[in-house]
């Protein structure tokens, strides 16, 4: 590897366990600074370019607000608004943006595309979600679990539903942090073998099952996400059928009396989760959403220092 190459964040295991801990500590410090109204303009005058091929509420607003709070600026680049959506190759977009901005965040469909962005960029590239991974979500999730559980040691998380991008990054992040994870998906919807392999290499292979009750029983945290991710809309009928029985509802929570409930949002009430669970007192979904801001501010300032 070339020492002059920038550091990228395409997957949660692009950082070591120690680096993860220091990013989370920095996030906690930023959260405190913001709550206390203390100045923390560590990215004064810096600019983040944000490419979006898919819609977003949390990722877009947390990155843009985060840059403002750090004294910098963010530029929203919807695919159709820039030449990328009109035939300019990603590698040209990447090299051009690198001449203007200090870091690039990308939300793209194919994971290969975030890798192309990173390969051609001379500034750090951050993955803001691909079809395969959502590592910024995992950073916020780990911060949230650390706050609510007081640490990671002995914490058990049950992932219920689709072995999707959010599940995959969380599985590797859980291994990195030392969280005990069980993943319950319908057959055929599990995490990819190579993701399982990466978790194993970090010493934390998840337990895989097709039984949501088995996974949820006595868990400290129950985590779910949509059954139909962005780009899978054509699979709606098949998926709605295949995911029957995997809803996070009051009956499932009865098996885990102390569990908090996480969801990366947006939630589709009545599908993967019920309205009463999202609104209930065990739900920590908006703490998770808030922590996107603090975690990403920490990530950006860490990457850019
Ligand atoms: N959780 C998350 O990434 O949400 P958005 O799609 O709103 O960014
Ligand atoms: N799995 C979802 C996450 C959205 C933040 C999707 O990819 O659409």
UniProtKB/TrEMBL annotation:
<dbReference type="InterPro" id="IPR002292">
    <property type="entry name" value="Orn/put_carbamltrans"/>
</dbReference>
<protein>
    <recommendedName>
        <fullName>Ornithine carbamoyltransferase</fullName>
        <ecNumber>2.1.3.3</ecNumber>
    </recommendedName>
</protein>
<feature type="binding site">
    <location>
        <begin position="134"/>
        <end position="137"/>
    </location>
    <ligand>
        <name>carbamoyl phosphate</name>
    </ligand>
</feature>
<feature type="binding site">
    <location>
        <position position="292"/>
    </location>
    <ligand>
        <name>carbamoyl phosphate</name>
    </ligand>
</feature>
<dbReference type="InterPro" id="IPR036901">
    <property type="entry name" value="Asp/Orn_carbamoylTrfase_sf"/>
</dbReference>
<feature type="binding site">
    <location>
        <position position="225"/>
    </location>
    <ligand>
        <name>L-ornithine</name>
    </ligand>
</feature>
<dbReference type="InterPro" id="IPR006130">
    <property type="entry name" value="Asp/Orn_carbamoylTrfase"/>
</dbReference>
<feature type="binding site">
    <location>
        <begin position="56"/>
        <end position="59"/>
    </location>
    <ligand>
        <name>carbamoyl phosphate</name>
    </ligand>
</feature>
<feature type="binding site">
    <location>
        <begin position="229"/>
        <end position="230"/>
    </location>
    <ligand>
        <name>L-ornithine</name>
    </ligand>
</feature>
<feature type="binding site">
    <location>
        <position position="83"/>
    </location>
    <ligand>
        <name>carbamoyl phosphate</name>
    </ligand>
</feature>
<comment type="similarity">
    <text>Belongs to the aspartate/ornithine carbamoyltransferase superfamily. OTCase family.</text>
</comment>
<dbReference type="GO" id="GO:0005737">
    <property type="term" value="C:cytoplasm"/>
</dbReference>
<dbReference type="Pfam" id="PF00185">
    <property type="entry name" value="OTCace"/>
</dbReference>
<feature type="binding site">
    <location>
        <position position="165"/>
    </location>
    <ligand>
        <name>L-ornithine</name>
    </ligand>
</feature>
<keyword id="KW-0963">Cytoplasm</keyword>
<dbReference type="InterPro" id="IPR024904">
    <property type="entry name" value="OTCase_ArgI"/>
</dbReference>
<feature type="domain" description="Aspartate/ornithine carbamoyltransferase Asp/Orn-binding">
    <location>
        <begin position="153"/>
        <end position="303"/>
    </location>
</feature>
<feature type="binding site">
    <location>
        <begin position="264"/>
        <end position="265"/>
    </location>
    <ligand>
        <name>carbamoyl phosphate</name>
    </ligand>
</feature>
<feature type="binding site">
    <location>
        <position position="107"/>
    </location>
    <ligand>
        <name>carbamoyl phosphate</name>
    </ligand>
</feature>
<dbReference type="GO" id="GO:0004585">
    <property type="term" value="F:ornithine carbamoyltransferase activity"/>
</dbReference>
<keyword id="KW-0808">Transferase</keyword>
<dbReference type="InterPro" id="IPR006131">
    <property type="entry name" value="Asp_carbamoyltransf_Asp/Orn-bd"/>
</dbReference>
<dbReference type="GO" id="GO:0016597">
    <property type="term" value="F:amino acid binding"/>
</dbReference>
<dbReference type="Pfam" id="PF02729">
    <property type="entry name" value="OTCace_N"/>
</dbReference>
<feature type="domain" description="Aspartate/ornithine carbamoyltransferase carbamoyl-P binding">
    <location>
        <begin position="7"/>
        <end position="147"/>
    </location>
</feature>
<dbReference type="InterPro" id="IPR006132">
    <property type="entry name" value="Asp/Orn_carbamoyltranf_P-bd"/>
</dbReference>
<dbReference type="GO" id="GO:0019240">
    <property type="term" value="P:citrulline biosynthetic process"/>
</dbReference>
<dbReference type="GO" id="GO:0042450">
    <property type="term" value="P:L-arginine biosynthetic process via ornithine"/>
</dbReference>
């Amino acid at each position: 590897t070339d020492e002059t190459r920038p550091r990228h964040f395409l997957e949660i295991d692009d950082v070591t366990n120690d680096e993860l801990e220091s990013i989370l500590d920095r996030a906690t410090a930023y959260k405190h600074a913001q709550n206390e109204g203390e100045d923390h303009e560590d990215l004064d005058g810096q600019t983040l370019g944000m490419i979006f091929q898919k819609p977003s509420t949390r990722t877009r607003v947390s990155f843009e607000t985060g840059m403002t709070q750090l004294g910098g600026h963010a530029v929203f680049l919807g695919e159709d608004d820039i030449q990328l959506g009109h035939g300019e190759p990603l590698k040209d977009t990447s090299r051009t943006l690198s001449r203007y901005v200090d870091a690039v965040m990308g939300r793209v469909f194919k994971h290969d595309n975030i890798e192309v962005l990173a390969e051609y960029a001379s500034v750090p590239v951050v993955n803001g979600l691909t079809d395969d991974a959502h590592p910024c979500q995992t950073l916020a999730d780990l911060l949230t679990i650390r706050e609510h559980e007081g640490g990671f040691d002995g914490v058990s998380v049950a992932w219920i539903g689709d072995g999707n991008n959010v599940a995959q990054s969380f599985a590797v992040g859980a291994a990195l942090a030392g969280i005990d994870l069980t993943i319950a998906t319908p057959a055929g919807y599990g995490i990819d073998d190579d993701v399982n392999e990466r978790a194993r290499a970090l010493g934390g292979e998840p337990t895989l099952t097709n039984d949501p009750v088995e996974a949820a029983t006595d868990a400290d945290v129950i985590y779910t996400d949509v059954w139909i991710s962005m780009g899978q809309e054509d699979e709606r009928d098949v998926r709605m059928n295949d995911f029957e029985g995997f809803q996070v509802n009051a009956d499932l929570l009865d098996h885990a009396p102390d569990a908090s409930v996480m969801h990366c949002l947006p939630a589709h009430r009545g599908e993967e989760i019920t309205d009463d669970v999202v609104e209930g007192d065990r739900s920590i979904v908006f703490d998770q959403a808030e922590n996107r801001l603090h975690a990403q501010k920490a990530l950006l300032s860490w990457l850019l220092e």
